[in-house]
Design goal:
Blueprint: H1 2-17, H2 25-54, H3 59-74, H4 77-83, H5 85-92, E1 98-100, E2 105-107, H6 112-119, H7 128-151, H8 156-174, H9 186-195, H10 198-202, H11 209-227, H12 236-257, H13 297-307, H14 320-323, H15 370-379, H16 388-396, H17 399-408, H18 417-429, H19 437-442, H20 451-460, E3 488-489, E4 521-522, H21 544-552, H22 555-558, H23 577-587
Antiparallel strand pairs: 1-2, 3-4
Helix pairs in contact: 2-3, 2-7, 4-5, 4-8, 5-7, 6-7, 8-9, 8-12, 9-11, 11-12, 13-17, 13-18, 15-18, 20-23, 21-23
Keywords: Heme, Iron, Metal-binding, Oxidoreductase, Peroxidase, Signal
Pfam family, one: CCP_MauG
GO molecular function, one term: peroxidase activity
Length: about 600
């Protein structure tokens, strides 16, 4: 299966990149030569690492060589992650099984993070053969990468796209420790990642004045990393606003000067953005089913009317807003809401703000889009018990609705059932403000956050490891830098605040019966978390203070509960009370203006 997927990916990559212009071949040959040189160096470092393990060298020597190997990878990461992400996943992805939920299959992880767990903080000689095995698999992946780079042509616009993606990767994954969770070597590696983008950019125009300015910015960024390489103490707020954001803007300026077109692709990140924190950086249309479902203001206006219409429920007594109160950031403030028959529902009502910027809906991720989500709720006998056919019939008899539908869908003669779903979804897609005090700070307003809030941000993206699951800047589980896949996590949520018993809810496992998915739930956004209490899928925690305390103790497993498949690290974070307070203070800065 894995070989089949690899050859399909190879075929698609070849077809995609052979569409580039012939006159770009000469300059990309130099780029490819550089890549092959760096890939051979990476292979040599892995060979040396394997040799040290094979000859039973000390942990210190093995660890030092491992770090050299990681630094060598950072020189080619910009290209591997962009052009061959499937292979990149098995070179530097999380040490967790790769899930193919559609096929109910999983594949064991490989690469640096798997090796890291074997050699640090303690290396045991009985792991020797497994470490060697992983090193050999890594070499095989290098060969796969070389095979693909041999047959593709790399155009200027792909270079710019890959370089932009590298900066976003550094912001959202690199400096958070996502790809070095135990060794925490991310800061020193960040400088190498930034330096790596200069060669491909120079291949476009080495005499550019803007590129010379970019070179100075990157050199100073590397120096900042070298001088401040303590992972926990690193000031990410300063580094992003004073180094990475200016680098992003300079890259965009270089692209405009060289008149390089954006790559045409469907992506949650709009190609024209200057930084990852631009107000309109994300495109909700990247998550729709087809162009017919694209967002428009007229669709959202229609959807808003439907959202507050109790006629969508069987007894005409409950609307979407009944459980998603706009004053509470579209939650209800309850541990779990009440069903139509008066019993408690199983799960907490999640916020609809920023729900459109993910490709999985509901806590158990059972629906992939907002259109299906709305139908699921409307027709659920415990929630609204409505009928889409009956709703459609009512709308056809309502002159006001017919006029709104004509304006929203001018190409159709009368309202169609799919348009009801799409209009509701479009309203939800309008609920992404990106105007919190955090956003203001990241866009240059230094007075938007105080000292404690900045400390909290640095903890969130560093020592507390929050940002390795709640990715910047969406702060949900939609994975950067492509932001095209939404993750689930197993954190061992207790059934009551005392933490004595595990929640019996099996989450994602109910729909995909794989042992890794028992108790797996979608990673929600923590934007507007200050007004969306209580928390977790079962509403077990009333305050953010309780939530932080739970994570500080290592989740369910850290509390002593049996959670064999927990994906959350179960070691104590060892946050002080002041650090816990700063974390909560920072999370409150993620509140949209209308809820402040």
């Amino acid at each position: 299966m894995m070989k089949f997927k690899y050859y399909i990916s190879l075929f698609l990559v070849v077809c995609f990149f052979f569409s580039c212009k012939k006159n770009e071949v000469s300059q990309t040959t130099t780029i490819k030569q550089d890549l092959f040189i760096d890939l051979n160096k990476l292979n040599s470092e892995i060979v040396q690492f394997q040799k040290l393990v094979s000859t039973n060298k000390s942990q210190k020597e093995i660890l030092e060589q491992f770090q050299k190997s990681r630094l060598a990878y950072k020189k080619v990461e910009w290209a591997i992650e962009y052009f061959i992400p499937e292979t990149a996943r098995f070179m530097n992805g999380p040490a967790l099984d790769e899930m193919e939920l559609e096929e109910n299959k999983s594949f064991e992880p490989h690469g640096f993070q798997v090796i890291e767990e074997m050699i640090y903080p303690e290396y045991k000689s009985e792991d020797k053969e497994n470490v060697i095995r992983e090193a050999k698999i890594f070499q095989s992946n290098i060969k796969q990468v070389q095979n693909i780079f041999e047959v593709i042509t790399i155009s200027d616009n792909h270079i710019l796209d890959a370089v932009n993606q590298t900066i976003y990767r550094v912001i959202a994954l690199g400096i958070t420790g996502f790809d070095s969770p135990i060794l925490q070597s991310s800061i020193s590696e960040t400088g190498e990642s930034l330096i790596s983008i200069l060669k491909p950019l120079k291949s476009i125009n080495s005499n550019s004045k803007t590129l010379a300015e970019l070179n100075k910015l990157i050199q100073s960024s590397q120096k900042y990393c070298d001088e401040n390489n303590n992972f926990n103490a690193f000031n990410r707020a300063v580094f992003i606003t004073e180094y990475l954001n200016p680098i992003s803007k300079k890259i965009k300026a270089f692209q405009k000067e060289e008149k390089i077109q954006n790559v045409k692709k469907t992506s949650p990140l709009k190609p024209e953005i200057e930084t990852l924190f631009d107000k309109d950086a994300f495109d909700v249309n990247a998550f729709v089913l087809s162009k017919d479902y694209n967002f428009t203001a007229d669709k959202a206006k229609l959807g808003e009317k439907l959202f507050y219409d109790t006629n969508l429920s069987k007894e005409n007594n409950r609307s979407c807003a009944t459980c998603h109160n706009p004053e509470k950031a579209f939650t209800d403030g309850l541990k779990t809401n009440v069903s139509l028959t008066g019993s408690n529902l199983a799960r907490n009502t999640p916020t609809l703000t920023y729900a459109s910027l993910q490709n999985a809906q509901f806590w158990d991720m059972r629906q992939l889009d907002l259109e299906k989500q709305s139908v699921d709720v409307i027709q659920n006998k415990d929630e609204m018990h409505g009928s889409m056919d009956e709703i459609h019939a009512k709308i056809l008899l309502n002159r006001e609705y017919i006029n709104l539908f004509k304006k929203a869908y001018p190409k159709t003669e009368k309202p169609e059932p799919w348009q009801i779903q799409n209009a509701l979804a479009s309203y939800v897609r309008s609920l992404n403000a990106f105007d919190s005090r955090f956003d203001e700070y990241m866009r240059g307003n230094k007075n938007a956050l105080n000292k404690e809030e900045i400390e909290g941000m640095n903890l969130f993206m560093g020592k507390a490891k929050c940002a390795t699951c709640h990715f910047t800047p969406l702060f949900n589980g939609t994975v950067p830098p492509s932001y095209s896949k939404t993750e689930h996590e197993v954190i061992g949520t207790p059934n009551e605040a005392s933490g004595k018993n595990l929640s019996p809810d099996k989450g994602r496992y109910l729909y995909n019966e794989m042992p890794q998915l028992v108790g797996a739930f979608k990673t929600p956004t923590i934007r507007n978390a200050a007004v969306t209490a209580p928390y977790m899928h079962n509403g077990v925690f009333k305050t953010l203070v309780e939530v932080v305390d739970f994570y500080n103790k290592g989740g369910g497993k850290g509390l002593g509960l049996e959670v064999e498949n927990q994906t959350l690290p179960f070691d104590e974070l060892k946050l002080t009370k002041n650090e816990e307070k700063a974390l909560v203070t920072f999370m409150k800065t993620l509140t949209d203006k209308k809820y402040q």
